[in-house]
């Protein structure tokens, strides 16, 4: 991940450079940007202007590129801190007609400009540039589109479902948020939008994360096994000492006396190692059986 840029920023930077050659797909992407971040305004002199509001540079950058490609317009955009204006009245009308723009409160993209699957991919690319964000996958998996209303959110959710990506919608303050929390779904969305470098980076992080989790599970399991073994050996020794002090080794059968003495001599040995010290040698299950007999005897004595 680049220094000073979030993973979400890197995805958007890649999407800005992703430009399909098909005019209909370029229109679908431009339609998403204009519907989600643009506004058509009337100036006092009666001229129309197209205003793109976005603090991040990615949307305006992509908008300028698409306008140039689609309409051969050297877009001279007035710029301030958060706004970009395009005020050629004839060109504004032409652009709005091309994306089949109709003034409406819901601000959704006209379905006629995103009939094909390739156009739906382009639409999602424009939607993510305008409304999307993604968490750092090293910390967690979360991709979302923050929409102004439920109709916008439903259009994005329905488009994702066409690609078999299940997204959910939740209300957050005055917004409707379309979100995906499963890493597989996020990988698929990046693939749909054409963010293949970000996809590979995410997959690499996923592999590293899975490896770390696997190692941690193994270490925890081994630590638990060691603790279990140590606790078992400690109890065996306590039982044997109790038998020695309250019953006496002379009263034990030869097999039990022998394993009792070996366990006291080698308190850290495994069951297999204890069996190796006996004469003749005894297998792990045989050692376990004898130690269990001693434990039962100790319990009886204590009662």
Textual characterization of the structure:
The chain is of the alpha+beta class. It folds into two domains: 7-194, Homing endonucleases (Endonuclease I-creI), CATH 3.10.28.10; 214-302, no CATH class. The protein has eleven helices and eight strands. It has helices at residues 7-17, 23-37, 57-71, 89-98, 117-131, 150-162, 183-193, 196-246, 254-265, 271-277, 284-302; strands spanning 38-42, 48-53, 78-79, 83-86, 132-134, 143-147, 168-172, 175-180. The strands form two sheets. Strands 1-2-4-3 form a four-stranded antiparallel β-sheet. A four-stranded antiparallel β-sheet has the order 5-6-8-7. The radius of gyration is 35 Å and the shape is rod-shaped.
What distance separates the N and C termini? Answer: 66 Å
Round the mean pLDDT to the nearest integer and report it: 85
Please name the CATH topology of the largest domain: Endonuclease I-creI
The number of distinct structural domains comes to 2
Oligomer: single chain
Shape: rod-shaped
Sheet with the most strands, sense and barrel status: 4 strands, antiparallel
DSSP summary: helix tally: 11
- Rg to the nearest angstrom? 35 Å
- Main CATH class of the largest domain: Alpha Beta
Low-confidence stretches: none
Helix content: 55-70%
CATH architecture of the largest domain: Roll
The sequence of SSEs as H and E is: HHEEHEEHHEEHEEHHHHH
- How many runs of DSSP E, i.e. beta strands? 8
């Amino acid at each position: 991940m680049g220094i000073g840029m979030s993973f979400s920023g890197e995805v958007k930077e890649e999407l800005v450079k992703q430009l399909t050659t098909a005019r209909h797909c370029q229109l679908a992407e431009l339609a998403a940007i204009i519907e989600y971040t643009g506004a058509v305004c009337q100036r006092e002199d009666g001229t129309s202007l197209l205003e793109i509001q976005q603090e991040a540079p990615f949307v305006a950058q992509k908008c300028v590129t698409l306008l140039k490609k689609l309409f051969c317009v050297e877009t001279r955009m007035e710029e301030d801190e958060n706004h970009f204006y395009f005020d050629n009245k004839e060109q504004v009308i032409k652009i709005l007609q091309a994306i089949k723009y109709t003034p409406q409160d819901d601000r959704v993209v006209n379905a006629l400009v995103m009939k094909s699957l390739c156009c739906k991919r382009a639409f999602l690319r424009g939607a993510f540039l305008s409304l999307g964000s993604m968490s750092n996958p090293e910390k967690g998996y979360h991709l979302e589109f923050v929409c102004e209303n439920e109709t916008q959110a439903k259009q994005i959710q329905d488009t994702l479902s066409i690609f078999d990506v299940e997204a959910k919608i939740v209300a957050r303050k005055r917004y409707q948020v379309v979100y995906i929390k499963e890493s597989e779904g996020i990988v698929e969305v990046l693939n749909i939008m054409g963010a293949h470098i970000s996809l590979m980076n995410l997959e690499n992080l996923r592999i590293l994360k899975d490896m770390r989790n696997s190692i941690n599970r193994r270490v925890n399991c081994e630590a638990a096994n060691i603790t279990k073994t140590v606790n078992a050996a400690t109890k065996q020794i306590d039982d044997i000492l109790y038998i020695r002090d309250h019953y006496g080794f002379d009263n034990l059968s030869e097999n039990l006396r022998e394993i009792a003495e070996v366990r006291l001599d080698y308190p850290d040995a495994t069951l297999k190692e204890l069996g190796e010290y006996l004469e003749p040698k005894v297998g792990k299950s045989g050692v376990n059986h004898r130690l269990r007999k001693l434990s039962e005897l100790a319990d009886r004595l204590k009662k």
